User: Fold these one by one.
Assistant:
Number 1:
Amino acid sequence: MDMVVVNNLVKSFPTPTGVDKRAVDGLSFRVSAGQIYGLLGPNGAGKTTTLRMLSGLMSATSGSAAIAGHDVTAEPMEVKRSLGFLTANTGLYLRLTARETLAYFGQLCGLDPEQARRRGEELIAELSLSDFADLRCGALSTGQRQRVNIARALVADPPVLIMDEPTLGLDVLSNRHMLAHIRRARDNGKTIILSTHYLDEAEAMCDQIGLLHEGRFVAEGDLQTLRELSGEERLSNIFLKLIHADEAVGAEPQ
Amino acid sequence: MSYSRRIWTIYSKELIDILRDRRTLIAMIVVPIVLYPLLMLGSIQAVSFQGARLSRSSFTIGVIDDQHRVRLANMISNDAAVLDVLRDRLDPDSEEAKALPTPITAAKTREAFGSLAELERALQNREITVGVIFKDDRLIGLPNYDQQVPVDIYADVEDVRSAHAASRIEALIGRVNEQMRAGRLAREQLPPTFFQPFKVDVVDLSSPPSILGQILPLILILMTITGAIYPAIDLTAGERERGTLESLMVCPVPVIDLVVGKFLVVTTVAIMGATLNLASVTATVYAGGFDQIMAKTGGAIPVGTLLLILLCLIPFAVLMSAIMIAVCSYARTFKEAQNYVTPVILAVLIPGGIAALPTTRLDGIMLVMPVGNMVLLARDLLMGAVVPLWILAMVLISTLLYAGTAVVVAATVFGQESVVFADSGSLKSVFRRSLIKPVQFPSLSMGLLVVALLFPTWFFVQSIFSPGPGEDATGLLYRTGYLMPILFVLIPMALLAYWKTDIAESLALRLPSPRYLIAGVLVGVSAWIPTHELNFLQAAIVGVPETVSKSAAIMGETIKALPPWTAIVLIALVPAVCEELLFRGFFLSSLSVTGRKWVAVGISATVFGVFHFLIFRFAVTTAMGVLLGYLCWQSRSIVPGMIAHLLHNTLGVVATVKPTLFEHIGIATNGDAGHLPMMVIVVGVAVLLVALALMRRPESTQSRILVYA
């Protein structure tokens, strides 16, 4: 079953020149349940804008998207109930502890206080947060904060996770942790859309990949398809080849 | 999750969050606890220090005759000697000793000026502090009993030192007078009261907290605003700046709930801050012994008054918090929010300042002036004035209307993607027409905003054109007749057009099904019967204020004097068209986004009632508003309501102009109308029930639009 269906999605922003800029230009893709879909591309390719439209934070200029069968425009509350959202620069309430944060978001997502507390405990155990669960978030390291953040995104146990550059700014160890958590979530049956510009990471993680450049897909499919399409082995080379930039920057030595 | 539990979840989290912030605690607790004692001690000491310094300070006296100079010097030294003797006799700690005047010890008398003009010039150049002119040379010897020597004291009263010197010389001459009089009376063996047939004591009857009553409301208003600013910025712009807004916005919670929760927290903090400030002022006053000082100038603050001030502060805190939340919701960063807040504070202080002027009174436009009306109400209550219930209601209702509007505007702005994400275009895009997407109905915030702005405007129109003594209401009727279409129809329509709102849909410009037309006619001819009874019931319970019956009588005379068709146009046609378009068209359709029929109809009817500015007519107009709102909602058309409104008001005009028509069925149409005959009531209620039955089934959504915009 397709948990995410995106159909000809467009977002244009006004610019001072009066000519609107199309940040996302007619994107269509589907993600089946239990898969990790990688939305890849350089900075400014339109990844973040796409993910914001999927989560209902931004309205689409045209086109449609559905999460777990709910249309993003028509049923925004249902969509929000079906997804967890995480970005690299998602902040935490610095004056709340991790435990309080989880309880708060649990309740916002519709759990009663007792359920929210129990769900918080589960996540603290699952993501090994207990060492710092009672510290205020302001006192945590970047890696610890990002772990609390992923727990926050999982608090309502949503079927779909949207992660925008979740590993940005993490050290090697925290990065490992984060990727392990994402894999575990997938193994638990979550559908995940992951955006990143670390192509090696994507190569290791994603079941399906959409290569985004200037608001459009230059290619889409699993890694094998992309390799066949481009005749290149590594994802970074595939990408450069497909956007015809390899000549400009010079092919990477094999 | 239930609505109240969701709001509670947001509220309690935000409150914990904000109270854990050191900056909030400093602003809310440390500042008042430390600042007020310091401020109060400082200013009172500065004042008494200034006084002490002035009384010790030296000054120069100018005269125009050297003999006068000698005489004055003698007076000063004699006075000092007498005062010294008196002081020695008294216990230095006694009240009497403290009350003794300070002798002039440090005054120099300058060489005599040649003329009065020279003395005046010297005074203007500050070469001398004060000038003393004895107008009669006979004072060189002791004046006789029948002689009086005029003395002019020249001073520049705008110069504190000069004014002070002048008052001390005046006091000195008073004491010299007193001594001479006492001496003469003693010589003549007359009692000391001989020349004093009357003894004057001023008994101060001004209500105790007069000075406090003038200043305290303004101080407290500033405190409350200060309390609201920081949390408002922190919970809106701060949330955005720290990157927590995205995760909040992807939660399945309506934005309005988030904003309401935050608004309640800001209100709580503002009220807590104001309470602490008030407590700190009170503690400083009593602990510092300043209550005695204040008792001299105006009196201490009784506990009951303090509670009264606090009660007045609550609606004000509600309004300020709502405004602050709305303003800060536009900002993306803390800094930006601070920039927005400054002009708002100024804008609030202007009506607050006007209200704090002693001559301003709580009437006319001030009744509905945001902030100003609260300041005046607080002042009047503090002064112990009896505030009529309708004024209290007016102030509270208008304040709540403004606050509600601000909260809804905040909710609209808070979720705007151009505000949430800095990279999705500037704020201007909110207002750039080419970017506005066409919508069917006006938004709730737009509806409330227009009504909140029209409310004081309309009140102002009504009060400036209201008939003066001896005038009839013709001017009022004509002017409101011109202004109502502009304010109630053209302005809302222009806004609808700008925001690409479907005007025909918004104003329900639809051809109604025949059954609603019949219902409208039936409501129009029968609604006056229950409203008449409702009026009668109300009059029996609360009575009819004299002003109401008087203005009703003036209106009646005016209507009789007008040509009948003119009266019908001004009283029935114009209001029927304009009020229906505004309240049942524009406002009701903006409320329809709530999706709840009775909430929408109820709010629009209440506001319709409030717009008539008379608490006495509130019940009747609101009931009418419910009926007309329901008619419009069910029929999805403005027309039946207009017909009902037109017929209803026309019957009112007919009853005034041709009372004989109604007297046939036993209805007195003069001021003290009694019950209607039972038969009439039965028929009226039956007709109304038929009308309600006709509108029971809502019109299908496929009905035809009357006008294509």
Number 2:
Amino acid sequence: MRSLLAFAWLNVQLAWRNLWRNYRRTLIMLAAIVLGAWSMIFMASLARGMVTQMVRDGLRALPGHVQIHHPEYREDPTVVNSMPPLSSELRSSLESESVVAWTSRVRVPAVITSERDTRGVTLVGIDPERERLLSFVADDLAEGRFLEGSDDKGLIVGRKLLERLETDLGKRVVVMSQDPENDVAERGFRIVGVFDSDLAVFEEGFVFAGEAIVQQMLRIGEQASEIAIIGDDYRDAERLAADVAVAAGGELQVEPWMELDPMLQTMMGLLDAFILVFVVIIFMALSFGLVNTLVMAVFERTREIGLMLALGVAPRSIVAQVIVECVLLLLVGLAVGNLLAWLTVSALSDGIDISMVAEGMADYGVGSVITPRLGLRDLAIANLTVLILGFLASLSPALRASRLEPVKALSES
Amino acid sequence: MASVSAAESTPVVGSPEVTVECVDVCKTYRQGDLEVVGLDHVSLTIEKGEFVSLSAPSGGGKTTLLNTIGGLDPPDSGRITVAGTRVDGLGKAERARLRLEKIGFVFQAYNLIPVLTARENVEFVMQVQGVATATRRDRASAVLAQVGLDGLGDRRPTQMSGGQQQRVAVARAIASEPAIVLADEPTANLDSSSSQQLMELFVELNESLGSTFVIATHDLQVMGYTRRQVRLLDGRIVGDGPPETASHS
């Protein structure tokens, strides 16, 4: 073991000194690796920042991290599939430390009518104080006021819906839905607030009223359609859902956001694939230079390699020497590239304003400011991919070096 | 070609007294479209502690014989035993192991590793062998002093003269105390004064260490230092004996 370590150390020493024999070539190759590593990591952090923002915005757009429903509600989101008032066990689970905030909502399909037009919408009855902690509605209020309590008789609508209905802040509208007996339940509301949203579907399709008022209108007592919960970290939603499900018993359906919005989850998976593909493409460009550097290094040292073989160094040790040289080059390049990427991301911690080009992106839930996010996972993907592919790229020149015939190699001029 | 030994009594094959035994060794190699005979049924026995020169005109087979004995080039046929190990038939890795453990090499062109210092070059073979650091360091210092390079251990090859570099190569060859040292034209790149000093060093090491030295050369002055001269011509042994008599054998 000691002799193995001594020989490994000898290989590292030889590789390091050999790297600097032709320092110009090494510096050029290092510059390429640094640039490659920087661009891989910076682009990955930009993409990660964009998707993280999309996920956060997506979760703020009502789902929260975890939701509880009546088992039939997701198939048929009507008032018939409302949940009974919270059990004491579930309520104490929602007050636990792992839950940052929660709220209950009544959420039913409805029709809204102004004096000029009628549109289909989703009527959401909210508890304004609790809702403020979970969703975008209060933050994105552009005009008027937010609801002041569960029994507030006002209505909040999106700007686009306001335009479609050809009505205005302060005017009255009528909202109609069905009660559990399939009778028409309707009520007049005064529009007290208008919200903007990055997603057009929200601005056109959702209206918000006090939860108690909606429960009264639908004649459902204290029943609700859903409980939305926010935990410490959206990535831990599955664990949170499992904890809450225990308290909820088997009668309610508890789902993390990944199940509620599979598209967001898919996008996160796609991002990992995108980052890997990006890293591999950049590395492929790098690998030509890397292989060329190693082939030249082996070619220039043919005599020396022949000498080592003649002195009794095993061919596999020659393979190790060339690979160590390549890995050292990559490690130095990656270290500098990582540092530069970290500095760049730190310098851009306030975000990059892409409003010039982001107008159309809003429809996909992308905001006008992207904040790059340096994730350990992305760092690991970029660095490990480069190291593994670099190792593979070095195999060919390494094997070529190990197959040299000592006598022929020693006679090379 | 019959086996010829300088010793009066024929040593027993495989005995500790025999360092090299070649029996009916043949080797041909290609030079372009031509097939060149390198060794033609060569048989030779070299005993432990002998100081032998292999001499031949250019292309006569001395380097081929040296390389074949050293396991650098496998023979086409015949049997070679070095320090009790059959060389013919060994695989590449096994021959590398044999060279590492039993043979020291000195080449015409010094062949030091340029990125290592003189001391590191001397330590190199021992390091590959897995010798402990302290032992290796002590041994390298002792050997460098023995070849007259005390105090020059931290110099890189480019900071040394040809004679000094060749001394480092000799130090590297003897540092691991091999059973045999094979030197291929070790003085060819040296001036006459350095050549003389190097040969005196070989004689001294041969006497003090008791190691077997085989030197391929066509330099009469070098042959004069050895105690046995094996002459080759066209891949055949044509003379074997003390330098003054070998040409008449």
